[in-house]
């Protein structure tokens, strides 16, 4: 229990510190993080606000740390009760224990119900849009060129994308900068800078092609610390479906003159194991970028489940079981972990083949 408390405190403080306090509320170098945290909680306590329409409002009484509790005995008894009824049960969708016991199951059921109510309008919109798009199909008369795909958007998807796709997505979707920015916004942790003194090159690009694309050879990009690498080769070992799929790895670089982060080469690791670069024909290179995007989408789903949900959820469970409902750290976590116990049940139904 002691360990959990320490772990939790670290998690909560780092979550708060990194994503919230630094960005919005507190100056970067806080001299007294604990008291700053408490004043942050105080500021968030907007009692009287409409909690039904704003789930991010902290409800209830003033939150206090254990030492300042009005009645430590009652507070401790309430925690003991939680520990008897909010239990560590078997994992759902992999990972560590999942809530069990009377309150644990109730909480999971409540989160599931809440999230299903929340996404109802989106689901309804998706069904309407899907029907409309199917009705509109004949008007496209086939899709002959890459550009034809932009015809799919006007007068479609109006419920799910009322303002249409972002203008840049319609005009710039074949550009390399668009593709590399997708890397940074989808799974940035999947791309890493190669260290010239400890990393080796996974594959070679001939000097002429590298120079034409990036202005220098692969080796000098590496030496200059401008070379990046993304690796999805492990997807090669997954049971295949009837649909063709690659298991790409790829190089990216920072362009010395523009400072842009750009793709340099994509290797497929299946079939003829071709290496594509921006020097290929436009459609071949676009195909390579699509293949990498497919790999990244697959990666993102599993990585998010494993590195996000399965990590925070067990720390949150420890918090629920060991902290008073009046503890400011639990108040913050309740807010950050909104509906979180719905997710792994949903993942078990939609991501996993069970
Ligand atoms: C398309 O990309 C260019 C170059 O990065 C950028 O200047 C332009 O604003 C983008 N277009 C849209 C509509 O976002």
From TrEMBL:
Upper taxonomic lineage: Eukaryota, Fungi, Dikarya, Ascomycota, Pezizomycotina
Tell me, which GO biological process terms does this entry list? linoleic acid metabolic process; lipid oxidation
Keywords of this entry? Dioxygenase, Metal-binding, Oxidoreductase, Signal
Q: Where is the signal peptide?
A: 1-23
Gene Ontology molecular-function annotations: linoleate 11-lipoxygenase activity; metal ion binding
- Pfam families in the record, alphabetically? Lipoxygenase
Domain Lipoxygenase: from-to ranges: 121-354
Which InterPro entries does the protein's record reference? LipOase (IPR000907), LipOase_C (IPR013819), LipOase_C_sf (IPR036226)
Q: What is the protein name stated in its UniProt record?
A: Manganese lipoxygenase
Record PROSITE patterns: LIPOXYGENASE_3 (PS51393)
Superkingdom of source: Eukaryota
């Amino acid at each position: 229990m002691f360990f959990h408390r320490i772990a939790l405190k670290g998690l909560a403080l780092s979550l708060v510190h990194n994503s919230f306090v630094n960005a919005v509320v507190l100056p970067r170098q806080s001299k007294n993080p604990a008291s700053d945290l408490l004043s942050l909680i105080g500021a968030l306590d907007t009692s009287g606000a409409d909690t039904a329409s704003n789930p991010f409002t902290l409800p209830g009484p003033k939150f206090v740390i254990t030492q300042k509790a009005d009645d430590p005995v009652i507070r401790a008894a309430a925690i003991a009760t939680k520990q008897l009824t909010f239990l560590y049960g078997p994992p759902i969708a992999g990972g560590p224990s999942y809530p069990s016991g009377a309150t644990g199951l109730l909480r999971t059921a409540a989160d599931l119900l809440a999230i299903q109510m929340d996404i109802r309008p989106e689901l309804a919109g998706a069904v309407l849009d899907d029907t409309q798009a199917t009705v509109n199909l004949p008007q496209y008369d086939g899709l002959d060129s890459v550009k034809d795909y932009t015809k799919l958007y006007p007068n479609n998807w109006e419920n799910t994308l009322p303002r249409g796709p972002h203008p840049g997505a319609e005009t710039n979707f074949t550009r390399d900068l668009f593709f590399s920015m997708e890397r940074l916004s989808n799974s940035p942790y999947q791309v890493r800078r190669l260290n010239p003194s400890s990393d080796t090159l996974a594959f070679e690009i001939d000097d002429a092609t590298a120079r034409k694309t990036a202005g220098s050879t692969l080796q000098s990009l590496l030496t200059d610390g401008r070379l990046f690498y993304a690796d999805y080769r492990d997807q090669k070992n997954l049971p295949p479906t009837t649909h063709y799929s690659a298991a790409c790895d790829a190089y990216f670089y920072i362009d010395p003159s523009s400072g842009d982060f750009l793709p340099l080469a994509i290797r497929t690791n299946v079939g003829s194991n071709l290496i594509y670069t921006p020097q290929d024909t436009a459609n071949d290179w676009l195909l390579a970028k699509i293949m990498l995007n497919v790999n990244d989408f697959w990666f993102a789903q599993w990585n998010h489940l494993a590195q996000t949900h399965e990590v925070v959820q067990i720390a949150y469970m420890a918090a629920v079981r060991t902290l008073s409902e009046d503890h400011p750290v639990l108040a913050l976590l309740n807010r950050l972990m909104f509906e979180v116990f719905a997710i792994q049940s949903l993942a078990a139904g939609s991501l996993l083949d069970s």
